[in-house]
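Module 6 notes. Inverse folding takes a fixed backbone as the condition and produces residue identities as the prediction. Think of it as a translation problem where the source language is geometry and the target language is the twenty amino acids. Below is one complete input and output pair. Work through it position by position during the lab.
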């Protein structure tokens, strides 16, 4: 618990806390995608430096950039977030600190192994990773019929060549991950649809259906209506999805 026994402590502790919250809020408003991933220990270190010394040392900025890279945050979003800090602090952007941040991000990215299983826009699985998951569980489906199934949640398509904007993709990804957490399911976004590979159980079926309601609640029903179709997992699954007909398909407007 923060102590306020002396005036000096109160004066230095509250501004840091206030700056942290203002930075977080400003970053969200600027387009930070996944709110639960924003705070890291390096964030607090940066705030303390700026609040107490009015500057951010190069090594401190580099540490934050490296931490963002290790957490899968892109360079554009990392720099946007850093700019939001100075906006929140009502200060001009420190270009040298921004450069150090970018250097830290680049160095960590070069040292890290390639990341190919997570889509940067939705936070869900990439198509390649989703296909690998299907191949891995197809043997289980052969020996234990009905062990896994596919669900496809189709959303309204878009006129013209433009798809959902990246903020909508981030929100729909968060909605799906929130509903499927703990189910052992893998989800992917492709062509205005969420594809879900999941172990079949009554609870998991219910959670997949709940994804429909969660998607329809995104951005004041911007993705409504959502259709769901369930498919059996074929033992020779080689594409997404490789099925002939749905087991269950239904459409609801509410």
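Target side of the pair, the amino acids:
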């Amino acid at each position: 618990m923060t102590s306020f026994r002396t005036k000096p402590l109160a004066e230095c502790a509250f501004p840091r806390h206030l700056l942290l919250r203002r930075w977080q809020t400003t970053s969200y408003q600027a387009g930070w995608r996944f709110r639960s991933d924003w705070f890291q220990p390096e964030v607090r270190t940066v705030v303390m430096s700026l609040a107490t010394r009015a500057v951010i040392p190069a090594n401190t900025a580099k540490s934050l950039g490296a931490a963002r890279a290790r957490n899968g945050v892109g360079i554009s979003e990392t720099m946007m977030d850093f700019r939001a800090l100075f906006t929140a602090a009502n200060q001009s952007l420190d270009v040298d600190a921004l450069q150090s941040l970018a250097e830290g991000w680049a160095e960590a990215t070069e040292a890290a192994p390639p990341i190919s299983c997570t889509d940067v826009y939705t936070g869900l699985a990439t198509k390649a990773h989703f296909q690998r998951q299907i191949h891995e569980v197809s043997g289980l489906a052969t020996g234990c019929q009905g062990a896994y199934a596919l669900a496809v949640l189709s959303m309204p398509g878009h006129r013209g060549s433009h798809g959902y904007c990246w903020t909508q993709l981030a929100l729909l990804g968060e909605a799906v991950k929130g509903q499927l957490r703990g189910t052992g399911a893998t989800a992917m976004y492709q062509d205005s649809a969420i594809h879900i590979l999941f172990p079949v159980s009554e609870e998991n079926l219910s959670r997949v259906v709940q994804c429909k309601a969660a998607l329809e609640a995104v951005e004041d029903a911007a993705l409504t209506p959502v259709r769901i179709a369930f498919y059996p997992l074929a033992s020779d699954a080689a594409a997404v999805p490789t099925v002939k007909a749905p087991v269950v398909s239904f459409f609801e407007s509410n």
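Reference fact for the lab report: The chain has a mean pLDDT of 79.
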